[in-house]
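Tutorial, part two.
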Amino acid sequence: MDGNPTNNKSGGGCPVMHGGNTGTDNAVTKWWPESLNLDILHQHDAKTNPMGPDYNHRDAVKGLDFDAVRADVETLLTDSQEWWPADWGHYGGLMIRLAWHSAGSYRLGDGRGGGGAGNIRFAPLNSWPDNASLDKARRLLWPVKKKYGNALSWADLILLSGTVAYESMGLKTFGFGFGRQDIWGPEKDVYWGSENEWLAPSENRYGDLDTPDTMENPLAAVHMGLIYVNPEGVNGNPDAARTALHIRETFARMAMNDEETAALTCGGHTVGKAHGAMGDDKIGAEPEGCPVHGQGLGWSNPDLDGKATNAFTSGIEGAWTKEPLKFDMGYFDYLFGYEWELTKSPAGAQQYAPVGMPESEMPVDPTDPGTHRLPMMTDADMAMKVDPIYNEICQKFIADPAYFADTFARAWFKLTHRDMGPTDNYYGPFVPTEELIWQDPIPAGATGYDVDAVKAKIADSGLSTVEMITTAWDSARTFRGSDKRGGANGARIRLAPQKDWAGNEPERLAKVLGILEPIAAQTGASIADVIVLAGNVGLEQSIKAAGMDVAVPFAPGRGDASDAQTDADSFSVLEPVADGFRNWQLKDYAVSPEAMMLDRAQLMGLTAAEMTVLVGGLRVLGTNHGGAAHGVLTDRVGQLTTDFFVNLTDMDLAWAPVEGGTYELRDRASGTPKFTATSADLVFGSNSILRAYAEVYAQDDNAEKFVRDFVAAWTKVMMNDRFDLVA
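Running the prediction step on this input gives:
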């Protein structure tokens, strides 16, 4: 018998695969690193969800007793547990940190991260150094989650806990929206950086460390494993002025301006304390690295001894204010009322201590109220004092405490809700009524107009199928499932900055809008609806030209956003710099066109099969950017046929690279060139998984299936942002 001699019944070997079901040694990308990994399109598959196909979280959350949940969280805050005792008998600071770090992984560049799906429960986030001991906070919340079950998601509960904690400490919060839906495994698509070690030197992600805006996109945090900046200074070297520059860039990449940044920093440190009473050499492994008997509870602390004073999280030690359980102006009293000198915590972390502070002004020990402890400030805190812009903002806060409290409450609400999308996704009695521009508000659209009459006017408008289809696609493709921004609803493609984006072909766009806008005005339909309807009309015409008759679904009711409802600067991050679906790139990038297409597909919520059918269909429809011929593998341009797949898989034809980084399809027998393509085309024949999908559509019996699958995928893209229609 051949094979591994230890893997038999008589030997002592283990009778199961080693690494095959627990590691990645056999992964395709291990052996072929350049292979396109499609896993991100299939994460959160229905097979990973224990709730079953009939469960609707939005229906469930509507039945939640919101007031009771809130009350139970507030009660929990003062129910200190021996296994992880609360500072001063109140878990407020811990829950605020949990909520903050759950939401704080959000970055504006690609909308990924954030607290909207409860991702902090899973690796790598659950084991980031910056998230040390937040596993304790989640375990403390478990009785509440257990009690309310399916109607209360972890994502909602985690962020609610921080909001309730602030309320219990005296802050009038801005509000809270329920409705986040949990995922059941880590988000595989989030690129957190290329480093292979926690807290690797910052130089790894900057072009120039002294020029913070050279940080690699779409990253926002300065180190692998941190949420924001290093509190000890850039690369752990205290220099508050330099740290301020990195704070400004980091928070800007998390969608915060200078005032919001200062409010969050100061308001976040107005309560609670940092923990570094001992060195991390005494602390156990993180949750993903702890032994099985740890049951996922990491960072074990053998010297805790039931005392909050002995806890360890960041290594920095001390409170920021005299009364850490009150949301007040104590942070400013300390920061600006004393001089501060550099020192070290018991764990060896760089921090600042006040000069000449009398013991009576110091906060008391979190375990022993008879003992006073020196407060501290981090390098990030000192940045609020030494940076002239942040200092000026702080002085404004000091002069008007009510303004500070309101500014912080609004910034906290933004931090914890930024990735929820429009307010159609908010549930519960605590949702504020005020419309906020960062929520990308869209007025309700009309639904009572005659859809068929609008379609008839569009069909008689003289627009080509390409003009109609590409305009609808460009309007809808901006959608990001990561933070539920973008999409066709709102018709922001007609506003700055979208109307001027190179990817939208401004001249062609202006022509099409000039024809569609009067139709909207004449019929009572929104421009957003008319744009999508035009795409549907063009698609139906192309289907008929191919000899079939398939209706494209449509739901009216999109609204038209105004310039005043559009934060142009914020929308600039949605600009496509590549669109593999239209075979276009703004310029050459280090990342391959097919990888960028994959990223776009994932943001639009497409599966690999849906991506395949859309690309193949859009190619034969002739919708390439600028009318380029690459990948248009058909002699019947404008008809929705399977020609792209038929010619791609035809073995009488062969592909060859040509000058300029493109490829040429030639007849094998004669060598006569027939078509050209990019790598974003050829990947559907070279990648084994994508080729399997391509072969389905190349089969003689699947012409009608192709059309119906294309229409379904097209409709999904057009409807991605119709949160108003979700039950």
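The CA atoms of residues 513 and 637 lie 24 Å apart. In part three we will examine how such features are distributed along the chain.
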